[in-house]
Amino acid sequence: MSIYVYAIVDTDHPLRLDGLKGVGDPGGALRAVEAGDLRAVVSDAPPELRAKRRDLAAHQSVLERLLEDGAVLPMRFGLIGADDEQVVSVLEANATSYAERLGEVDGRVEYNLKVSRDEDDLLREIVEGSEDVRRLNEFTRANPTAQDQKMALGELLSKEVRTREEQEARDVVERLSDAADGHAVSDPVESAFLNVSFLVKRERADAFSRAVTEEANRRGDAYAFRLRGPLPPYSFV
Q: What is the mean pLDDT of the chain?
């Protein structure tokens, strides 16, 4: 039977998984596949695996419990192996790199930050700060049928928005980097111009959250900061 893989830990991890079930209906029994100094936490894979809320929650619950007790290399939802032998083979082939990664994330958690800005506020800033944008904007208001100028204005606005958002994203990451051990920037989502994950020492988690709050307050009400965490370090494995 194929097996579902949740995470990789080392053999010192207590694997305190009592009361938890894996994916599937009914949820599969959790167990460990061991190879040298590493263990993969697995369960039997259900015949048809889909990203249902129940199974996503079961996957996340296993990772959160593991994270409470030690270093974890979390797997993304849906990773399935052919059998125990294949998992052992992968653990053995990648033993050195997995051990190094476990050392890097030991005692650390991930925080994901998404930052967005009110569109009208950004456009007002662009119009006030760019002579070219202001000139084209005034011309198209006075000449509503001037299609070429309207297109030119749209292209110029898009370029200015992109440039300013990229700069602001770099500024936010730079200002928060001192409070974290690392960061990984992902593609913007859901109207957020910044989608970034930070690797943070557990003992510095409160300090990091305060730094995010201070940065949000510094930028004002036109910005929305959405911080999620602590999370398993998905972005750093």
A: 90
